[in-house]
Amino acid sequence: MLTLYHAPRSRSFRILWLLEELGVPYDTEMVSIHGSDGAGPIPSDYIDIHPHRKVPALVHDGVPVFETPAIALYLTDLFPQGGLGPLVGDRQRGPYLTWLAYSTGVFEPAMVERAFKTPHQPALGWASADEVEQVLTRVLEARPFFLGDRFSAVDIVLGGSLQYMMQLKIIPETPVFGAYVERLGDRPAMHRALQRDGDIEES
Ligand SMILES: N[C@@H](CCC(=O)N[C@@H](CS)C(=O)NCC(=O)O)C(=O)O
């Protein structure tokens, strides 16, 4: 059994989207992270699932997995028939792992630096937001999705973050990024996830 620990309108939306893309059965447990939704504090035993008490976390048959790229990799390996993550032996496996790791190791920290107007420190191990933006532009002007013609979980994890940063105006809506986000918007599973996210918030 799969249980997603989720908070509406948060980073865990991308795992909701991935589960909808995979079309597999799953449960959700609401975690109150915003403090203003009347759901009360996060239960103290949630620390056994996510040591920082953040979302998303996934529990599969009693075993917890946390950190969005790890959950995405776990799910696409668990459900290879979904075709959303190249498997070991596929030439795209390397790029797949690279962009998943890049999403939280480079992209997010660079964008947070930009959002908070923090001067970029190269010693920290990621690139500046300007450089990241150039890299992503070069990739996405050459191909429709991060791995080429094939939509994958990278487009949910990294693409979903890019989309969010554009909504927050941290990344500009250039023609390349605008067209990419439009392609993401064509995914029916994204709309199902949005619906479920809204339903969870109202319940
Ligand atoms: N690196 C984590 C980040 C998780 C994260 O920061 N989640 C936020 C929600 S957007 C959270 O749970 N915040 C609640 C808190 O920090 O108390 C991942 O990518 O999964």
Automatic annotation (TrEMBL):
Instruction: Give the superkingdom in one word.
Output: Bacteria
Which CDD domains does this UniProt record tie to the protein? GST_C_8, GST_N_GTT1_like
Q: Does the keyword Transferase apply?
A: yes
Any single Pfam family the record assigns to this protein: GST_N
GO MF annotation list: transferase activity
Fetch the InterPro entries from UniProt.
Answer: Glutathione-S-Trfase_C_sf, Glutathione_S-Trfase, Glutathione_S-Trfase_N, Thioredoxin-like_sf
Q: SUPFAM superfamilies from the xrefs?
A: GST C-terminal domain-like, Thioredoxin-like
- Domain named GST N-terminal: residues: 1-83
Spell out the protein name for this chain. Answer: Glutathione S-transferase
The species this protein was found in: Achromobacter arsenitoxydans SY8
